[in-house]
Design brief:
By secondary structure, the chain is α/β, with parallel strands linked by helices. It contains eight helices and 16 strands. It has a single domain, classed as Spore Coat Polysaccharide Biosynthesis Protein SpsA, Chain A (Alpha-Beta Complex), CATH 3.90.550.
Length: 257
């Protein structure tokens, strides 16, 4: 089953980083967020990706075009220009389709173009800015059991502030930004049947509006509840939190070796 990743948005709320690169290329631990997301799926054996490009898509193309050389030791003959990869190094055995989906295309339009590229088969889809310690096979089993057109992963985002339990003027428990949130929200990590294209009008369609609203209205939208770690890299604060977790060796989404 192929994995599609939406990587074409402007990322305006993270302008400190996205003025020079697309949001999925913002680095955590020296690796782009896109790489982290792909590794989550690859850890479960899903290694064929369709990346929907838009804003500064050429940066993502350059990253993968040069990936082989950037991740290996090399010998370079300066006279001939010949480059030889040295033994003992290896890259991920992924297949990555880089699909131009338009600069101004909305999320629904990108989903439709991806679905049409993949063809008449179900596929997985997620956003290029969110990570989770999600069990992908359990998500797929849930989707198959429910038999719906679409399944989204419902998550509870971290609270913005810490939480305390107070009794008789004394703090009994203190938690720094616990994973409780304000209820269940759409966390991405979708499983979709190819027929979802019938609910997307054109490039101006927002995936999160008419398509998902219509699919939900006819009882064809499943919700796989993931109460554990999930975080969307929406602001610089989120980037710093993810960076700190990675640097401390405590990144919950790192489910690969």
């Amino acid at each position: 089953m192929k994995v599609a990743i939406l990587a074409g948005g402007l990322g305006t709320r993270l302008s400190e980083e996205t003025t020079i690169k697309p949001k999925p290329m913002v680095e955590i631990g020296g690796k782009p967020m896109l790489w982290h997301i792909m590794n989550i799926y690859a850890a479960y054996g899903f290694k064929e990706f369709v990346v929907a490009l838009g804003y500064k898509g050429e940066i993502i193309k350059d990253y993968f075009l040069n990936y082989h050389n950037h991740t290996r030791s090399l010998t370079v003959n300066l006279d001939s220009g010949e480059v030889t990869a040295l033994e003992g190094n290896c890259c991920q055995d992924w297949i990555v389709h880089l699909l131009d989906t338009g600069m101004d295309t909305q999320t629904g339009g990108r989903v439709k173009r991806v679905a049409e590229f993949i063809g008449a088969e179900p596929f997985m889809l997620t956003y290029g800015d969110g990570v989770a310690n999600i069990d992908i096979p359990k998500l797929l089993d849930f989707h198959k059991e429910q038999g719906k057109l679409a399944t989204l992963t419902a998550v509870r985002p971290p609270a913005r502030f810490g939480q305390m339990t107070i009794q008789d003027g004394k703090v009994m428990e203190f938690k720094e930004k616990p994973q409780i949130g304000e209820g269940w929200i759409n966390g991405g990590f979708f499983v979709l049947q190819p027929e979802i294209v019938d609910y997307i009008s054109d490039d101006k369609t927002l995936w999160e509006r008419e398509p998902l609203e219509k699919i939900a209205a006819i009882g064809q939208l499943g919700a796989y509840q993931h109460p554990d770690f999930w975080l969307c890299m929406d602001t610089l604060r989120d980037v710093l939190m993810l960076e700190r977790l990675w640097a401390e060796g405590n990144a919950p989404w790192k489910i690969w070796e």
